[in-house]
Structures are given as C-alpha cells and as structure tokens.
Amino acid sequence: MNWSYHADLGPLWPYVFILIAGFVATDCWRWAGVFLGNSISEDSELFVWVRAVASALVAGVIAKVVLFPQGSLAQAHVALRIGAIGAGYAVFFLTGRRFVPGIIVAEAILIGGMLAGL
User: Among 80, 82, 91, which Cα is nearest to 114's?
Assistant: First the structure.
C-alpha cells in the first residue's frame, strides 16, 4: 500500500495541501481574534494600535498597487490612477462614508480612462 499523498490525490495534491495549510494558518488567528476581541474594549490602547496597524497595511498595499502596478494596470498613466483614487475618495465622503459608490466611481474613471487611451 502506498501512503504518499501523491497516490490518492493525483495532480491535485499541491492544491489540497495549500488549501489545508492556508486554512489552518489563517483560521487559528481568526478564532483567536474572536475570543480575545470580545474581552478587549474598543477604546483600549491595544485595540487602537491594532486598528492603526491594519489601516496602515491596507494603505501601504493600495499605494503599492497605484504607484507600482503590475499587469494591465501598469498601462494606465499614474495621473489617471491617482485621479481615480482621489475621485473615489471624494465620492466616499460625499455619500456619507459609503464605500461602494466610491469604488464604483473610481473603477469607472479608471476603466473609462484606459479605454480612452489615457
């Protein structure tokens, strides 16, 4: 009897391994956050720090995507990318901090600009 993972799953074994490893690696932190988050006050210094770090990570990823894009987004001029983000940001605040209209406007400007050859 062959007990290797290759025998039972065939060519799918790497994907199954990634799925299981990804689930275990992320869900243990999610569950820890659920249990620990209930006992931490939203006004505590720890919670404020965690929120600030999370916001900084999101801002950093967005800045990297806008300033150093990969793939087809790299074909759009940097002014178009920054303008689309600025317009989406303005719509976000003008609609009472609703993110869906801001995302739609930013995407529409970006797609429209790329189709127009800007």
Answer: 80
